[in-house]
Amino acid sequence: PPLVEIDHRGQTFETYITSTEAVAEAAYLIREVLVDDCYLQHGLQITPGATVVDIGANIGLFAVRALAAVPGGDVTYIGVEPVPANFTALQCNLLGSTASAGSTHNTACAAAGACEAGSAAAGRSFFHFNAAFAAAVAPPTDARISRPYPGNIRLYNTAVSNKPGHLPLTYYTRMPGNSTLRPTEKAALQQCLMPSFFSVVERFEVPILTLQQLLQEAVPDGRMVDLLKVDVEGEEWAVLPGLDEAGWQRVRQVVVEVHDCLPGALDERPAGWASHSAGEHSSPRQHTASPGRAAQSDYGTTAAAAALDDDDDDGCGGDPARASGPQPESPAGQRRSDIDGDWISFWPRDLPSRDTRGRPLMQAAAPPRHDGRVMAVARMLKGLGFKVVVECCMLLQGVPVNYNVYARRPELSG
């Protein structure tokens, strides 16, 4: 993949990306992940010896941030990325041309070749090009640390959802980080948000693991997951119930980017996560079976899913008549028992938006809708014993569409 230089406010970053068409998205992600540190807010942190599981690793910018958090790279990093082009850039950014079957786990095909050995950058990773993140490849400050970088990195070229098998993925060559298993939902945003960037599309099937399967293989023997990061472009609602309650007890911190699908948009929800509202139906997708496994379209209810069932509407369903004119729900519309400032808090924030004439302005983001996906995720994590902070991270014509949900075990607070 190409190695490019991206400038941000006088600081230059060198990174591998999928193609030169994706430079604009890479620049945005560098600001969001490495400059604004969007995933490590509200007390979330990476400490020596931590295990970080990254679902939706993209080209590896959060991986860079995680591994550089501790000198000597004393962090075990497990990265999962289904898009082959993203996966190759991920390998190059973390491992240079040293990627091999021993350090990467590619469940879709033979291990990718990463960078060409004859290139000028052969053998060099993001950490070598960017001194601010070189701590990941520095000698460990603790002599007891025996595992050398990059032996603490495991990469999986697969997607994660709530059933194993295969699913079709839509790949946007100019916005590869927006590639998704839910293109219909993404299309609703494309009409207003840079439609030309979503105009070149490829579609192909990708293998699927559940979160349970991933952790059993990548973090065996009941070891703790110090940070679980999930950024899967709308699939988060299917990823999270793929881990049973015992598995969740191994997780200490969570950050999830949640796409709060527009009011009136159909949200396909697993059985057991469906609302109790009369006339509303779950509409599960058909998974192609793995070898030796029957095709399944029904979903089992996990203990995590059961944590949601104390509310009358936990999904993104609603009156279809509202779909053409979504409006942010007022704070008064929230149930006080949800955003209580203790177990679930909303962090107010002003974000860039535009007025009716298209002029830029800063606008206060409204709290998430009670019946949307964001609050369903927040309630689920609360039910599993986490303290939760919800923060809006994107407005679309003044309407909040993306939120980050941060969760920590109470014993880590204070």
What does this protein structure show overall?
This protein is of the alpha/beta class and 414 residues long. The protein is 18% helix and 23% strand. The protein is built from 10 helices and 16 strands. The chain has helices at 23-35, 61-67, 84-95, 126-129, 183-190, 211-218, 236-239, 245-248, 303-306, 373-383, and strands at residues 3-8, 11-16, 50-55, 75-80, 104-105, 153-156, 159-160, 165-172, 201-209, 227-230, 253-259, 344-347, 350-354, 360-364, 387-396, 399-408. The strands form 4 sheets. It has a 9-stranded mixed β-sheet with strand order 5-6-4-3-10-11-16-15-12, with helices on both faces. A 3-stranded mixed β-sheet has the order 7-9-8. A hairpin with a 2-residue loop joins strand 1 and strand 2 (11-16). It starts with a strand and ends in a 6-residue tail after the last strand. 47% of the residues are buried.
